[in-house]
Amino acid sequence: MARSLKKGPYVDEKLLKKIEGKRPQTAAVVKTWARRSQIAPEMVGFTFGVHNGKAHIEVLVSEDMVGHRLGEFSPTKKFVRHGGKMQKEQEQKQKEAEISAAQAAKTATETKKK
């Protein structure tokens, strides 16, 4: 749900204090847990370490990101893959195809040497 316009954007005050008076090129990674904080124009160029629940993921803020939340650029869930019998069969076919391609390339180089 959007924040009302009369209230203005929510930007964490501690986060603004951390970048206050620093230059984006010389500043180190600014670690933060404030995922709900919106990106302000003053933050452009800085690199933030946004916490995802396990680790800090580095986010380099650009002009296109202004108005978005910091948490949008630090995903909290990691997609591993869907498994099952079909997936294993597909992986096995892919391995066999790679092996046959490698063998074909090997025989082609051997015939050229003769």
What does this 3D model show about the protein?
This protein has helices at 13-19, 85-113; strands at 30-32, 47-51, 56-60. With 114 residues, the chain is an alpha+beta fold. It has two domains: 13-73, 30s Ribosomal Protein S19, Chain A; 81-114. The protein has a three-stranded mixed sheet with strand order 1-2-3, covered by helices on one side. Strand 2 (47-51) and strand 3 (56-60) form a beta hairpin. The longest helix has 29 residues, at 85-113. The termini are far apart. The relative contact order is 0.11.
Run of helices and strands: HEEEH
CATH top level label of the largest domain:
Alpha Beta
What strand order characterises the main sheet? 1-2-3
Low-confidence stretches: none
Give the percentage of residues in beta strands: 5-15%
Structural class designation? alpha+beta
Oligomer, anyone?
single chain
Shape from CA axes? elongated
The CATH homologous superfamily of the largest domain is named: Ribosomal protein S19/S15
Rg of Cα set: 24 Å
Could you tell me the number of beta strands?
Answer: 3
Largest sheet: 3 strands, mixed
